[in-house]
Amino acid sequence: MIREKRRKQKKRKKVLVGILLCLFAAAAAFLVAVKVFTLKKVVVSGNELYTDQQIKESVLNDPYAWNTLYVVLKHRLFQMKEIPFIDEMEIELRSPHTIHVRVYEKAIIGYIAVNNQNVYFDKDGIVVEISKRQIDHVPKVEGISCKEVLVYEKLDLNDEKALYLLLTFSQQMEKYGLSPESIMFNGNQNLSAVFDGITVELGSSEYLIEKAMRLDAIMPRLKGKKGTLHLENWTPFTTDVVFAPEK
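and the corresponding structure tokens:
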């Protein structure tokens, strides 16, 4: 009986010591997290539409954001607030005092003017922002109208064929790194675009992808020139391309 009692006492002591050691380790870890992982520097990359300061303010948006571990874990465990033009943000710990915020912005391929506001949309035709601000290198689309525009919803154009034509052309321009100043719809769904003094007549949606490929090959040869490039009649069987210089 005495031996059994001593054995139980020893077991209880081991459990107690184990609990105390766990508590001590947890307390030590907490002190390290509080005292060591203090935020001193934020490195931001991948942003063009937003400034570094705007990104920092969107990430460090609560009273506990002075702690680097907290900031990283918060953005890994919880969904971030939706920000116009931002597709995703990755936050990683570079050192106990430094975090890196990698920004993935949505590809804005154009905008239309509606009720004195600029309606910006992405490659899928989704409206990502409605505002008065002017974003550089985003082409204005003219000659089309919308029934209604809502943020995070697809452009509701009066003509669905026009939307398909617009998105197809814009995606091709993004693919080849070409940035038109404006895109215009004329009668009978004919498309044209302006590039630094050169108006490109593209015609209908027929062979539009192939026309974009030809445009990519031709544009470097027209650098510094002004005039009209006629691609509207181009087909794989009628490959003549006419450039009419401005008089």
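(Above: one complete record from the training split.) The mean pLDDT is 82.
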